[in-house]
Amino acid sequence: MNVTDYTYLINKPDTISEKQTDALGIVLDEFPYFQSARALRLKGLFNQNSFRYNYALKVTASHTTDRTVLFDFITSDTFVAIQKGLYDKKVLELLDISVVDCEIIKPEIPLEPKINTIEQSILTTIKEATGIEEESNTKIAEENLEIGKPLGFARDEKHSFQEWLQLSRIQPINREPETNKINELDQKSVAKTVPVEDEKKKKAELIDKFIEASPKISPIKQSTETAFHIDLNKSDNSYLMTETLARVYLEQKKYLKAIQAYEILILKYPEKSSFFADRISDIKSLQQNNNN
Q: Which superkingdom (predicted)?
């Protein structure tokens, strides 16, 4: 990638291609603190819906001095917008399609296959022995839960973003002291980040207390009808709970917290209770298969 291409991408980040995204990755291998290059690569990975986006976001956060700027960037309209040129091109391609002739195809009535009970029994035994069925269930659960897909943070989800960044805390590295000047700079940097870390810790403790205090949702028995009487206004911190935060817990493999998060979301959004209940079932299936 040359200077001209890079300058063009700085001015028009929406035009970044998959090839240019990979090229920026090579540049960052040599210059890991190249902030604008990291921002452009994040945009490229987000456009591709790449599984590498979440990890790249953590790495970018670890190389960023002011994470508020990073949060504002990934929640900006420019970042989340679809590339307009590509969108217009696809629309024109669809409009240019000319229909020459059409044929009405009658649906074929599928023949019911004859099931050999002995053969079916053997296949079932093999599946149980090899764990194929469990792998299939795990894969379906992961797809439903969108594990590995880019996390999209809204502008009012700073707590979810801070919770996610807990994964990107760097472990201390043992290295020989270079100069007194570098040590002084490190001490100043730590002093600046202490208030921010304290604020994050307070918010994390706040939502943890809310999850613990919130009532658990028990399965409803078919023979009885149960009515929930929950007072969310009592020490109400439910505004911190979002679908994104539930996904963050999943990415962190905090399955219990994820289940509790969806239980709270059921209370917040009763109209989506069926959807959230399905996600809880997927989490339990994933948790069970991981424990086996």
A: Bacteria
